Records
---
Amino acid sequence: MGIADDITYFALVVFTIVFGKVFKSYNGNQKLLGLFLGLLISLLVSGSHVYHVIVIILFNAFLITFLRRSCHIWSTTFTFTYLAFFRCSTYFGLEKSPSFTNAIMMMLTLKMVGVAFEVHDTDQRRRAIVKASEQTNKEEMTKLELESKYWDVNPTFLDVIFYGFCYIGILTGPYYKFRVWEDAIERKKYANIPTLKSAVHRVSIVPLFLILFLILSYFFPLSYVSKEEFFTERSVLFRIWYLFPLFSTFRMRLYSAFIMSEAACISAGLGAYPQQSQPKYGAGPTNLEIMENLDKEDAISEEKDLCFKTIQNVDAWLGEVTNTVRASMRVWNTTVQYWLAINVHRRFPIKPLRILVTMFVSAFWHGLYPGYYLALCSAAVAVFCEDVFIKKLKSRYPRFVFWYGLFYKHMFFSYFGAAFLLLEIGATVEYWKSIYFAGHIFIVFTFLVGYIWPRDHNCPKSE
C-alpha cells in the first residue's frame, strides 16, 4: 500500500471508531446495519472487485449451513484455494484487484474458516456431553456444559453472511470469533455500558507512532535499497544497520493500524468481557465459572469493569522490550496468532512439524510472494536456535542473555523483515548477499554457542 492507500485507510478507520458509538446504541437490526456498512466499505475500496468478497462469504455460508458435519474441511479447502486463485487472478485474464480487496479477503479467510471450526467444535462438545452423561461423569459434564454455554455457536445461513460482512475490522482486523460477534451484536452483552472512553484511551498512543512512521519513512525509505548507490557507495556495516530503521518504519505503521482497528471494536462494544473472566487474545472469557456468576448477579455496570483483550491485536510495549523472538511473536498480531494456534498448530497431527506448518500457513495467508515464506518459515528455526542458547546460558549469565537476546530478536526481525518487505526473492537475496548473509550466520552462531556450551549441572534440567 502507498501513501494514498494509507490515508484512505486512516479516514475509514476514524469513521468506524466515531460511528461505533452510534452503532452500539442503535435499537434496530444491528446485524443488518453492520452488513450494510461492511458492504459499502467493500464497494468503496474494491469497486467491481467486490464480487470476490461476495463469493467467498456466500459459498462459505452454504458450506457451513448445509455440510455442517464436515464444514471445517470444506471451508478450509475452498477458502484457501479461492484465496490463492484471487491472488493469481491476472494469470486467468482477470484484472488485478486493489490492495484493499486483498486485505478484506485475508480477514474473511480467517473469519469463514474460523466459524466453520467453531461449528465443528460445538458439535464435538455436544457429543462429549452426551457421552459424559451416559457415563454419569458429573464433573466432566458440568465443565462441558459451561463451555457449551459460552463457546457454542449455531449460525444460520444469514448469520454467516452478517458476520462476514460486518463492517468492524473488515479491512485489517482484528480477527474475532463468531461467538464474540454474536455476544456483542445479537446477545448485546454490556451494550448499555459506554466504551468510547476506552477507545479514545487506546488510540492516545497512535499519534506518536504516526510521527515516528513519517520521520523514519522519510529518512529511511524502502525504495533506497533498490538503488545502485546503496550497494556501490554504502559500506557493509551501513547496509546491516539500515535493516533496523527499515523494519522500525514497518512496525510503527502496523502499530498505528492495529491499534486504530482495535479502537473501532471497542467503540462498538465488540469484544467486551468482564476483567474477572480473564479474557485472552482472540479467545474471549476463559474463567467461565466467574463469567457465569457475574452474569447471574448482573454485576458489570461500569466501563472500568470491562476488558477488551479479546480483540487486542498488539502489545507495542512488550513487542519492543521482550528479549526473545518467541515472546515478541506472542504479542504481535495476537488475534491472528490465536487463529493459527487453535486452527492449525493444535490440530496438526505431527507435533515436531507443528511450528513449521503453522508458519507456512501464515505465509500462505499473507501472500504468494517468496519473501513471506523466507521470513515467516525462518521464525521456526530462529525460535529453536534461541531456545537452545537460552536453555544453556540463562541460569549462569542472566543479564548477558537478556541483552544478547534483545539484540538477537531485533536482528532476526529486521534481517528477515527485509524479505517480508522486499517480497521478491531476487531483491531479497541481493540484499542479504551484500551483507554476506549476516543474519543467517548470526542465528547459526547463536545455536552453536548454545549447543557447545557445557550444561550447568546445578540447575534443573527443565530450565
---
Amino acid sequence: IGASSMAQSLRQGELVTLPSIDSICGSLGAKTVAAGAFERCKAAAAANMLHTWTFTDADAVRACTTLLNDHRVLVEPACGAGLAAVYQHVPLLQHVNTVVVQVCGGAIVDLPMLYAWQEALGAPGTY
C-alpha cells in the first residue's frame, strides 16, 4: 500500500484510508488525507492542473542519493519521492520550462540510514 493515500483517493474519487503506511517515506504520509485538501486536489485534477505519480521506496532512496551527490544536501525519502519525478523525467514534465520541487526534511536521516536503505532496497547508485 505504501503512503499513497492522496493518489488512491483521487483515482477512486473519494477519500481512501490506508490500513497502514508501510513505506520508508512515511514521515509526510497520512493514512487519510484531510478532506479539504482532497477536495482542492480533486478540483485541480478535474481542471487538468494536478497530476499524481507514485514511486517506489527504491526510487525515493535513489533520488535522495542523487541529490546528495549533485548538491551535497541530505534529505529523507519522503522528499526523495518528489525528486524522483524530476530525476526520472516524468513525461508530463518534458514540456515544462520551470519545475519547482520543495526540498525539505533531513532531520530524521543520516548517511548510515541512507546506505542501509540502499542495501535493503537494492537501490545503490544514482539516476
---
Amino acid sequence: MQAFKKFDIQKKGYILPSNFKTILLQMKANLLSPYVRENIDTLITKSTDQSVITYPHFVAFIYLLNNMELIKKIYMTISDENPNKEVSKGQFLKEAQQFSQVTPYEINILFSLIKNLRDDEKITLKDLEKIAPLEEKRMPYRVTAKLAEETQIFQNRNIGLQFLESGYRFLLGSIAGAIGAFAVYPIDLVKTRMQNQRSKSYVGEVMYRNSWDCFKKVVRHEGVLGLYKGLTVQLIGVAPEKAIKLTVNDFVRDKFVQYTGELPLYGEVIAGGMAGGCQVVFTNPMEIVKIRMQVAGEIQSMARSEKTIKIVRELGIFGLYKGVRACLLRDIPFSMIYFPTYSHVKKSFADENGHNSVMSLFYSGLIAGVPAAGLCTPADVIKTRIQVRERQGQTQYNGVIDAMVKIYKEEGAKAFWKGSGARVFRSSPQFGVTLLSYELLQRMFWVDFGGRKPEGSQIDISKDIKHGEIVSLNSEHIGGFKLATVTFAGIENKFGLCFPKFNKVQQ
C-alpha cells in the first residue's frame, strides 16, 4: 500500500503501468519467475483492460502472486492430479469458491496472464509453472509421492521386463502394420508408377496423365487384382518394418520421459528419427522388390516374368539394399516429423479427461501423415528411380547425388514432386489405420510391464466423481474429502509437517 501511495501522488486511486513494473521489480522480485521478468511489460498490459493500474487491480495482482501455491493446489484438485489436463476458466472459478483466499478477480487476472501463452481460455500445470515455477519440494505431498513412486517403478524395471515389453509392442506393431498396408495398397501402386514415369519416355510419350488416369488404366488392362501386385512382399516386409518403427519410437520416448510425466519435444524428434533409421533394415529389401513388381505390370511380358523369388535371386543380399541411402533420407525425416505431430494432434483431440476416442486416434494419424509424407516426397522419388529396373532408353542412376542432378537436368524441379498427391493419400490413411490399430490393440490386449500406458487410453473418471465432487475411497468418510485433501496438503507445505498415510483395510 505504501508503494502504491508513493506513486499515486495526486491520490486519484491509480498509477501508471511503468510505476507498477517498478514496484514489482523492486519489492516483489522474489515472486517473479524468469518468464514473468522477461515479459513483464506485456503481462501487466494484458492483465487489465484499462490504460492505468487501479488500486483494486494492484492488490489482486500482488495477492495472486502470493497465492500461486494455493492456485496450483486448486488446479491439481480439479485435474485429479493430472498435470497435463486442461482446465477451463469456468472450472477454476467454480472450484475457487471453496477458498476464501482466492477471489474471482484474481482468477480473471490469472487467465489474462495465460493469454500470452495460449488463446483457448484453458490452463495446465505447465502454464502455471511459467508464472511461478513449481519446486519439487513445495509440491503437495500426494502429488510428490505419486510422481516419485511411478518414476521409481518405471525407471527401476529390470532388463527382462523391458525386453518382454518391446516384444509385446513388436507383435502388436506387426499386426497393425499389416492392416494399414493392406488398406491403402492400391494407392501405393499408383504412387510408385507415377514416380517412375519419365518425362522423356522411351516410347515417346508419358503413359499416365495423372494419378486417376493411372488408376483407371491399371484396372482396365490388368484387372482389379493388378492394383495388388507385390502385396505379398509388402505384407511380409511391412509387418517387421512397422513393428520395429513403433517399438523403437516407444522405447526411446520412454527414456526421455521426465519425472513429471512430460516428454520434451527434442525427445520426441530424436525418438522418431531413431525409429525411422532402424526400420530401413526391413524397409529397403521389401521396397525394392515391391517396386519392381509394381512397375512390371506396365509391360505385359515383364508382368509374367517378374516373380518375387526371381527378383530376390537376381539382386542378391547386397542388391536388396540398393538405394539404402535414399531410403534413410526419406524415412528418418518422415518419422521425425510424423511421431511428434501425431502425439500433439492426439493430445489436442483428447477430451477433458485426456481420453482419445477411436475417431480422434484415426484423425490424428491422418493429419500427422500429411506434412510428413508431403515434405519427404523428393527423397521418395529419388529412391524409386534408383531401385526400379531401368528399361532400354531410360536414364540410369548411380547414387543419390547422381539421381538428383540427372532428374533436375532432364525433367526440372517439378519431377521431385511427382506422385506427391498419391503419396499423401497413401501414407496419411495408412498411418491413420496403422496407429489406430496399434493403439486399439494395446487397449484390448493391455499387459502391464510396469511401463507407461499409451497416452489417451485413460478411462473416463466421471464414474468416480459425483456432482463434481471427489469421493473418498473410504466408505466411513461422510463428506468434505476434497476440501480436506487440499487443506492438509497446504498444512504440510506451510509448516513442513508430514502426516501419516494409511491404506484402506481390505475387508
---
Amino acid sequence: MDTEMVYTQDGLELARVTVVDCNNKVVYDTFVRPDTKVIDYNTRFSGITAKDMDGVTTTIRDVQAVLLSLIAEETILIGHSLECDLTAVK
C-alpha cells in the first residue's frame, strides 16, 4: 500500500492510493479529491499534477469503503512508512 499527499488550505491531504497484491499486481489505484483547495501538488515527491486531478470525484470516504472490502483481519500489509499511509486513509 502506498499513498500520495498534496498540500491544501488545511494542510496535507490524501490525493492517491495504490494497493498491490503479493505478486505486485495493482488491485486498487485511484486519485482522491481532497476536501479543500489544493495549493501545492507536491509533484516533486508525489508525482501528481493538476492535470491528474482534473475531474477526480473519488473521496476519502469512497477509498475507505474500498479498502475495507479489500483488507481482512488476516491481511498482511506492507509499505514504506505504512503508519503514515494508514493515517492518511483514516
